[in-house]
Amino acid sequence: MVTGPRIQVLFVDDEPGMLQAIQDYLSIVHSIRVDICNSGAEALTREDLFSFDCLIIDYEMPDIDGIVLLKEIRQMNTEIPIIIFTGKGYEDVAIEAINAGADFYIKKGGNPDELFTELAHYIRKGVRRYRAEQELVEKERRYRAVVEDMTEFVCRMDPDGLILFVNSVFAGNLQKPFETGNGVTFYSLYPEYEKEIADAIFLCDPDNPSTQIELPFREKQGKTAWHQWVIRVIFDDRFDIQEIQAVGRNISRQKELDRQETILKELGLSLATCSTLESALSFSLSAALGIGRFETGAVYLRDPDSEELSLLLDKGPYRAALSRVFEDFSRNDDGFILNTGEAVYMSMSDLNRYESRFTALAFIPIHRYNEITGWFALASENLIEVPVDIRNPLEGVVSQISNVISRIEAEEALRDALLESEERYMQLSETSPDAIAILSGNSVVYLNHAANSLFEVESPDAFFRQPFHDFLDTDLQNWFSGILRSKSGEKSPRAGEGFLKTKSGRQIYGELLTVPITHSGEEATLLLIRDKTSQRMQEQALIESERRFREMADLLPEPLFE
Length: 562
Fold this sequence. Notes:
The chain is 43% helix and 25% strand. The protein is built from 18 helices and 20 strands. Strand 1, helix 1 and strand 2 (33-37) form a beta-alpha-beta unit.
């Protein structure tokens, strides 16, 4: 049975009686609409010739022979069903008609009901096939229109991985001119990962027909791009692979962000536990080299007395060469570049006029108290330039140095104060940029100036009347209570982070360090508080940006299948 619109056929015959009889019978009995045409020449001039679902052509006509007409039509359209209808013997015409492109051949004569029923049967059979093919063509057209507008790269392949179709984005990302039938296989795009691809496809079955795989692709420039593919295997009724479809996207940027994030997290943990400036700078230099993929790096600090820059530490195979380059920039006419206070990035074209083995350089200033206290110098023999997308992370690494120096100096000052005298560390605490408090149990007995500002109190007296516990959130309250419950012999410096409240109720995020001390002859707790609200907000913004990015990635279109 043929579904869809009513079947329309064109009957070309020079016998009016036959035309009328078939038209009436097919229309009344089989609901097939029949248009009639009295000659082959008239049929060829009809503009709507190929709007019909089927053509019936008489073999013998005075103007144009049926076979000639058949060949003329087939030159214009190879798909439309054509039935040859003739009174000549079957053997005389059948082979000639089929070779010329006829779909069916029917011999006139015999019982009219049987003849017309057979004709209707062949019409329906031919139209069913024709419409199915047209529907496939239309689906293919719509499919191609959709995938051409996709930002993902799409391909279809046979069970052996031979590529049958790609969209333009695929060709652009894979950097090859693809044409159907050119013999390129999906496996050949990733020659070192053929087994991984084959294994991923092998694990698919009708119940779990899709899989995801990430593959590195070697680009023409020698760079490695990461492609993420969603591969869907289409099975036939016998559970054999009929076709494989794959939708991919370039995830190199996300891979790079993940790599940088890992380096920055490890750096944060290292900086939180280091106790010397040298170790902090060493961790930071290693992180900068890793983020930028530089081979060689160095850290220079300015002597506060002589104002001269001196090398504190360096890493990498070409440290002497980098030292010469940095000295040249510091002493010759280009020295003014390092006086601007801005990061300087130099590419291969910039370095052509210098006698240097390096092809890319980065000079990033260390700022503290609005002054340049040193420089990070990073160099590469392989990079053509310092990529724009890693410059902010590099500057972010260096920007943490000032905070680390302040923390280390504050901790050193506190240690010195504890070793000297209560009066001495009181004096030092008043000049510390970090908030310092001394607590007896849960009561505050001393606040330095920075602590007054942090908690927004005009006078320490107002702060003393309220338990310190009230200025902490629940997590910090539990943390601080645990410290207070510790026995004298078990007390040791403790570090924590969390939210605090100022006198006005404003919430801040701080890093806390407690040290057991003796104050006025009694046990007390020295508390160092560093305001990390701005850093916390930046971290939360980064996390939110990452979450939105991943949500957007999850919303990307799935492959389309009919």
